[in-house]
């Protein structure tokens, strides 16, 4: 079972529908006990960094997520769910993130259109089973105004160019997170979700 | 490499796609799910469903349609037409739709843009601007499907929707819409220069040169077209190959 964390931030249905389409059992909940019964956990979400942290705290989800990741269990962050894994974001100064991956979230500089909206391709920073069957240079769908800047190169899974090069995917063991939306990236995106379900 | 998006637009009446879509191998030309899946397989980058349902009682059918599309189609899709308030937006996003497009409702109540962007995120708030030329370099916003002039300058309106938190502008030239004479280049360029938001050019596509022209001459991020794709004049794949040959970055689906 794949548990999708419902914390009141944006559109969770498309992630749920993508896993269901692939034939995986999936549920959406904010109930901690139910989430802990899952085999793999997904943190999606759109919206502001600070609001999202507050929603996670109000639902008592922060500590269970940290423990889950410490235990090395499969965890997927998508879009805002990727940014929340970091220490802090320029979007919401003074508010700490989950702090799982050292680094910060910063806004795209002037000179490029914001949000970065549309399809862009991936370069691979390292190999990982979640990328099985996905070719370097494949395209994925992005919508975001901020991007993650991991302190350590070892966490960079994929890179993408938009004005300059940024980390579009990060990982640490079975913790994987993408800035783009695999659930909206046609067949190649579905492949990533299927690979995640098998981690 | 950031790509230009090719977006087919499908008109929907009572939850069914209308305006004679003509593909080979389609079992049901009115089925939004089947058509969406075909366009996804062909390499369309996004889809726009425009609800033209006139009858108030049957407007709800578009929510059902969106929910079915989201079960089978895994590229972003926008639903527009007849969305009036925050509750409509919330319901539509809950179906799994990625974006909603606001037109008349945004003009009548600009605060709806700000409140939606705050509540649901800018990324899902597309503002559709229907513009009609009044003089050189001057275009007026029209609403109610082009029937009602507003007296609002399209460039000023684009700046305003950006400041209110819109995530994207879907710009339709009402002078070119349906003519197949090509996109309105001066209008599209003026709006692209006025805002730092992604702009989708719409209205007037009649051949593939028109797509290339508006992209290379204006800074539009995406092109929307209906009839050239629906009637099988060009496939999405042909359009992408044509643009790629001209040096325009497009998403290749065989990567």
TrEMBL record, chain A:
Q: Which organism is this protein's natural source? A: Candidatus Solincola sediminis
Question: Does the record carry Transmembrane as a key word?
Answer: no
InterPro entries annotated for this entry? Class_I_gatase-like, GATASE, Imidazole-glycPsynth_HisH
Function (record text): IGPS catalyzes the conversion of PRFAR and glutamine to IGP, AICAR and glutamate. The HisH subunit catalyzes the hydrolysis of glutamine to glutamate and ammonia as part of the synthesis of IGP and AICAR. The resulting ammonia molecule is channeled to the active site of HisF.
The source's superkingdom equals Bacteria
Q: Which Gene Ontology BP terms does the record give? A: L-histidine biosynthetic process
Annotated Gene Ontology MF terms?
Answer: glutaminase activity; imidazoleglycerol-phosphate synthase activity; lyase activity
Enzyme Commission designation: 4.3.2.10, 3.5.1.2
Q: Where is the Glutamine amidotransferase domain?
A: 4-196
Summarize the subunit comment.
Heterodimer of HisH and HisF.
Q: Which residues form the active site?
A: 79 (nucleophile), 181, 183
Q: Give the matching HAMAP family.
A: HisH
Name listed for the protein in its UniProt record: Imidazole glycerol phosphate synthase subunit HisH
Q: Keywords in UniProt for this one?
A: Amino-acid biosynthesis, Cytoplasm, Glutamine amidotransferase, Histidine biosynthesis, Hydrolase, Lyase, Transferase
Q: Which reaction does it catalyse?
A: L-glutamine + H2O = L-glutamate + NH4(+); 5-[(5-phospho-1-deoxy-D-ribulos-1-ylimino)methylamino]-1-(5-phospho-beta-D-ribosyl)imidazole-4-carboxamide + L-glutamine = D-erythro-1-(imidazol-4-yl)glycerol 3-phosphate + 5-amino-1-(5-phospho-beta-D-ribosyl)imidazole-4-carboxamide + L-glutamate + H(+)
UniProtKB/TrEMBL annotation, chain B:
Pathway membership: Amino-acid biosynthesis; L-histidine biosynthesis; L-histidine from 5-phospho-alpha-D-ribose 1-diphosphate: step 5/9
Q: Active-site positions, per UniProt?
A: 11, 130
Quaternary structure note:
Heterodimer of HisH and HisF.
| Gene Ontology MF, one | lyase activity
What's the main place this protein lives? cytoplasm
Q: What is its EC number?
A: 4.3.2.10
Pfam families xref list:
His_biosynth
Whichever gene encodes this chain, its name is: hisF
User: Which terms are listed as keywords in the entry?
Assistant: Amino-acid biosynthesis, Cytoplasm, Histidine biosynthesis, Lyase
What is catalyzed by this enzyme? 5-[(5-phospho-1-deoxy-D-ribulos-1-ylimino)methylamino]-1-(5-phospho-beta-D-ribosyl)imidazole-4-carboxamide + L-glutamine = D-erythro-1-(imidazol-4-yl)glycerol 3-phosphate + 5-amino-1-(5-phospho-beta-D-ribosyl)imidazole-4-carboxamide + L-glutamate + H(+)
Highest taxon of the lineage: Bacteria
Family statement? Belongs to the HisA/HisF family.
Q: What does this protein do?
A: IGPS catalyzes the conversion of PRFAR and glutamine to IGP, AICAR and glutamate. The HisF subunit catalyzes the cyclization activity that produces IGP and AICAR from PRFAR using the ammonia provided by the HisH subunit.
Q: What is this protein called?
A: Imidazole glycerol phosphate synthase subunit HisF
| Gene3D superfamilies hit by this protein | Aldolase class I
Entry's Gene Ontology BP terms: L-histidine biosynthetic process
Enumerate the SUPFAM superfamilies for this protein: Ribulose-phoshate binding barrel (SSF51366)
């Amino acid at each position: 079972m794949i548990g999708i964390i419902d914390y009141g931030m944006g559109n969770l249905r498309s992630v749920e529908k993508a896993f269901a389409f692939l034939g995986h059992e999936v549920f959406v909940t904010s109930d901690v006990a139910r989430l802990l019964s899952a085999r793999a956990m997904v943190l999606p979400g759109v919206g502001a960094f600070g609001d999202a942290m507050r929603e996670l705290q109000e639902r008592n989800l922060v500590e269970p997520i940290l423990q889950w990741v410490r235990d090395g269990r499969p965890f997927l962050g998508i879009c805002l769910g990727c940014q929340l894994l970091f220490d802090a974001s320029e979007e919401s100064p003074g508010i700490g993130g989950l702090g799982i991956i050292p680094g910060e979230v910063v806004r795209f500089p002037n000179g490029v259109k914001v949000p970065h909206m549309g399809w862009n391709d991936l370069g691979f920073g390292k190999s990982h089973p979640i990328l099985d069957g996905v070719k370097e240079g494949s395209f994925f769908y992005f919508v975001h105004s901020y991007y993650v800047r991991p302190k350590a190169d070892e966490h960079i899974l994929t890179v993408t160019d938009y004005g300059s090069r940024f980390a579009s995917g990060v990982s640490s063991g079975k913790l994987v997170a993408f800035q783009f939306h695999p659930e909206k990236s046609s067949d190649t995106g579905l492949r990533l979700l299927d690979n995640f379900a098998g981690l | 490499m950031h790509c230009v998006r090719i977006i087919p637009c499908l008109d929907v009446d009572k939850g069914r796609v209308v305006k004679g879509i003509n593909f080979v191998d389609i079992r049901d030309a009115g089925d939004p799910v089947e058509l969406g899946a075909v366009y996804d397989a062909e390499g369309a980058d996004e889809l726009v469903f425009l609800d033209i349902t006139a009858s108030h009682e049957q407007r709800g059918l578009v929510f059902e349609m969106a929910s079915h599309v989201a079960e089978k189609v895994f590229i972003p899709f926008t639903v527009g037409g007849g969305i009036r308030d925050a509750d409509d937006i919330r319901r539509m996003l809950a179906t799994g739709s990625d974006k909603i497009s606001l037109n008349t409702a945004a003009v009548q109540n600009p605060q709806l843009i700000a409140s939606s962007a705050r509540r649901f995120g800018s990324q899902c708030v597309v503002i559709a601007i229907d513009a009609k030329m009044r003089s050189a370099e001057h275009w007026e916003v029209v609403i109610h499907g082009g029937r009602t002039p507003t007296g609002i300058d399209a460039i000023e309106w684009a700046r305003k929707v950006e400041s209110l938190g819109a995530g994207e502008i879907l710009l339709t030239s009402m002078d070119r819409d349906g003519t197949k004479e090509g996109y309105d280049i001066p209008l599209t360029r003026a709006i692209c220069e006025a805002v730092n938001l992604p702009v989708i050019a719409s209205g007037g596509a009649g051949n593939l040169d028109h797509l290339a022209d508006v992209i290379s001459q204006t800074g539009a991020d995406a092109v929307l077209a209906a009839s050239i794709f629906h009637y099988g004049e060009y496939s999405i794949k042909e359009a992408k190959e044509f643009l790629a040959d001209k040096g325009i970055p497009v998403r290749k689906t065989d990567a």
